[in-house]
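haha ok so turns out i had the wrong file open the whole time. this is the CORRECT one, sorry everyone. sequence first:
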Amino acid sequence: MNIMDFNMKKLAADAGTFLSRAVQFTEEKLGQAEKTELDAHLENLLSKAECTKQWTEKIMKQTEVLLQPNPNARIEEFFYEKLDRKAPSRMNNPELLGQYMIDAGNEFGPGTAYGNALIKCGETQKQIGTADRELIQTSAINFLTPLRNFIEGDYKTITKERKLLQNKRLDLDAAKTRLKKAKVAEARAAIWAEEVTKSEQEVRITQSEFDRQAEITRLLLEGISSTHAHHLRCLNDFVEAQMTYYAQCYKYMLDLQKQLGSFPSTFLSNNNQSSSAPVQSISTPSVLASASASLPSVSNSVVTSGISELKSSSGSRKARVLYDYDAANSSELSLLADEVITVYSMPGMDSDWLMGERGNQKGKVPITYLELLN
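then structure:
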């Protein structure tokens, strides 16, 4: 057999498989064929993965808009990224405004009150522009890149395996349909016994392949919880980057205000106000000192205090389940991610557990799987 004959036979086999799947899929849609349903746990994992993908895309795109409001600049950066080339360095809006102010101040004369003020404002705007550039760079590395890697990497793999699972299911159901037809024919003529045996063997093989693919898909989907944990750490990094940026901007503007406050009040008053009216000074809030010194990471102190209050009281609270949990014994309560249950403490309970209620069901639940609601 030459290569051409082999390729032709392979194409014919692939075409036959595709046709068989297409027929099976069409008959299912028309209600003319049975469909093997996935188990509830796998369906739940698939739904969770799809939900994660959709919201990750929305958050990623809107973060890009927040960091770079100019759509043309975003498109340009996208093309340079696809071409694996570095985008040309250009002034951002605060830097451009700052340069205009400095140039205008020099034109009007640095020795004049207005010219001097413009130069000082321009220098501050350029400082803000540098901070803005650092925010974009840090957020892109620590927040946007991990989200994009999930969409373009992990989720693409999940989609590929999910498609394979769909094909294996169609193959299985097509084999079951052929076996059913063969058994009907066998009842009419004994000569169909061999066809029935062949169909039964085909069902066993396709069932095995389907089960194996279902297990592969399930293992991949169970990694979504780890993805959520990783994206939580990335979100923490994004919040810290924003805290640093806003603290820097506040400090720059506070310094600028102090510099402008040293000007004679004649130059600072509005036309409709008395020239003797002083410019009010903005007091520095206490949050600036802590924000500009050392920005702490997001802690669970609020959660800890909420649970401590719950344990010390005799009341109950609503809590959202963060992850799926399978009860280890009859004293525990199985949980599904994102459901809301009632929790309360009982005397003598382990510090890592609470009592949970869902309708008529009760049982112990681990604290680490819960998020207390207000």
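The longest helix spans residues 113-186.
again sry for the mixup
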